[in-house]
Each structure stands twice: as C-alpha cells, then as structure tokens.
Amino acid sequence: MAESESTNIEWYVVHTYSGYENKVMSSLQKTVENNGLQDRIVDIRVPVEDVIEIKNGKRRTVQRKLLPGYVMVKMLLTNDTWYVVRNTRGVTGFVGAGNKALPLSETDFASVFDPAKTVRSDIHVGDNVRILTGLFENFTGRVTSIDEEAQRVHVVVPMLKRETDVELALDEVLLDEE
Q: In the predicted model, is pLDDT for residue 57 greater than 70?
C-alpha cells in the first residue's frame, strides 16, 4: 500500500468468503493479540441483528447476519495493519477503490448497527390470531392487513357484538391454532 498512512482510527469494511465471517473475525482477533496490535486494530465485528421468528405458533429470537460476506474492522490504517487484515485467511479484500481501503462514515456505521428488532412471522391476512399484551390480551381476532416495513398488524376483534379494529406490533400477536 503506497498511500500515506492515516492518523485516525476508523471503521473499515472487509470482504470475506460468504459463511467465513466469524472465522475471519476470530482469526483476526488472534493475530492482533499475538502481534500486539491492540492499539492499532481496536475492534472487529460481524454485523448481526436479532430477528424474532414466529413459526407454527412458536416465538424464538435468532441472530441473522446483516451483511453476509463482510466484517467490520475499527483500526488505524497503516501499511502493517492493512497487510495483517488483507492476508488473513478468508479475506478477499477491503471495500474501496482498487487497493485503497475507504473508511466508513459514522452515519453509515450507525445505520449498520441500528438496534431495531425485526419480526418475521408466518401470519397472513385472514388468519386468526391471539393478542398477547395490552387491553385486548387473550382476545382472538382476524388479521385484516400487515405492514411489514412498520412491523404492524391490523386485527379485527369481536367485542360486545361489534367488530373493533386494533393496530398492534407484529410481536404482540400469535397465530391462533384453534
């Protein structure tokens, strides 16, 4: 790397073979520790998000990779650190132009590690669901619409011989098996 060395510790995106993200992260952590580079390579992360999956009436939280094939490295970019990261088994290169690694802006980094939870559900319009929380807890209703982007669901609940439209979060309802 013939560029002048940077003086700022910044986040860089490293491209890896798909499925090797965790192996690259652990190999890089061991290399940093063994070579005493903790002051120049300060953090290594695989971007993941917690996703609540609802299948067959069962709720579980799973971790899903946000950027398959990529690892985030916070480091002071020097010839030595570039060489160490670039020559880690499973790394195919830095994200950037040619051999020049480009740092990630703070806003881009924040958008990658946004702590918002995502709910994936097997609930569809027309399904009967049971409400888990709130004023209508344990009531059963029929789904009229689902807004995946906003993570909201509209449910019609029969109450006092009338139907009441209720808007709920996707994780506040459970598919009714009855």
A: no
Find the length of the chain.
178
| 41-45 sheet: strands from edge to edge | 41-45, 70-76, 9-16, 91-94
Report how far residue 114's alpha carbon sits from residue 110's, in angstroms, rounded to the nearest whole number: 6
Quickly list DSSP for 42-74.
Answer: EEEE--EEEEEEEETTEEEEEEEESSTTEEEEE
Tokens of 67: 């950027």
Among positive and negative, which fits the CA dihedral 70, 71, 76, 82?
A: negative
Q: Nearest to residue 172, comparing CAs of 138, 134, 132?
A: 132
More confident residue, 114 or 76: 76
Tell me which H or E stretch contains 83: helix 79-86
Which class for 124: exposed (0-12), middle (13-18), buried (19 or more C-beta within 10 A)?
exposed
The whole-chain average pLDDT of the chain stands at 84
Rounded to two decimals, the pTM is 0.61
pLDDT-derived band at 5 (thresholds 50, 70, 90) equals very low
- Rounded Cα distance between 128 and 135, Å, is 18
Q: C-alpha angle 27/90/6, rounded to 5°?
A: 75
Residue 112's SS3 state is helix
